[in-house]
Specification:
Helices cover about 20% and strands about 35% of the residues. The strands form two sheets. Strands 1, 3, 4, 5, 6, 7, 8, 9, 10, 13, 14, 15 and 16 form a 13-stranded mixed beta sheet that branches. The protein has a three-stranded antiparallel beta sheet with strand order 2-11-12. The longest helix is centred in the middle third of the chain and has 14 residues. The chain is globular.
Amino acid sequence: MSQSKFHIVPYTPEFEPALLKLERNSTQGSMIQLEMIRDNFLSRSIVFENYRVYLGLTENGELAGVTAGAIVPFERNGERENVGIGYDLKVAKKFRRQGLSKQFGSHLVNQYFLSEGIKDFFITLKTNNVPVAKAAYVIERKWHYYDFIYLTIPTYKRIKEQSEYSDNQLFKLGLFSDKEDLNKYFSRLDNGLGIWNTDLMYSIKLRKLHSLMKVFQKVGNIFSSKEKQIPGEGEILKFATLFDYNFDNFYAINEVLAKLQKANIQYLNICCRKGDFVWDVLKPLAMNAYPYTALSTFNTNSTDKIKFDVRCF
């Protein structure tokens, strides 16, 4: 096997401008191109107690890509353990298909997770994101799939009184940390329902709309009130993520939506599984429902009760 042309090194602040440029050039989507916006590259990582950010450099020191990982608690059927998560994988276009993603995966596992005594790890990805999955498969372990859904709810919407739903919920998000400096990132209602301010880690810029989408946006906005306007090119979209939701406190979600709307946060993300009551109640309100997969080295099945840390989502 030939020696890699890339060197893997820890993050240093001198690469901050290059990292933010890489972020700008790493848009997602085709009909709608989205760009992640953050004040500094570490904003997604500093919420974790234990994390690493690694850079891939060429022989002449040019930034080719970046990845990050953290050690987080994970709960399955009421039993908690620490696992590793990989995230923030980005490779510059001219360096793609040259093995850097796979090199990053091996480095995260061997130089970080295993050295910290962490034997299991996972990533989350859109279910059809084959390149990211391939980067994980370089790790010679048996991989398991756990599918879930990202629902995005515009915060101007409200749920109405619902018919009876069964108290079924296999998938949850929680916050497994008592770090005092995390207090600015979240709030709770009196009933325990949690709001994680994802916008303090990053926002999303609507970078470009396909011409057909522009027509749809302009026509739709003619007949919409200001709060229901479809965003256009250049607009910044802010999100929050719901956590510690259950059958008993979920009725207060309208209070959460109103609070976020007042704070000019346009969207609430809620993760669930099809079949859970959350899916049944909120699917009619969602502007989209993205299928996601947790690809992990620990086994999960369709009857397990799973709880992930909201900081990972």
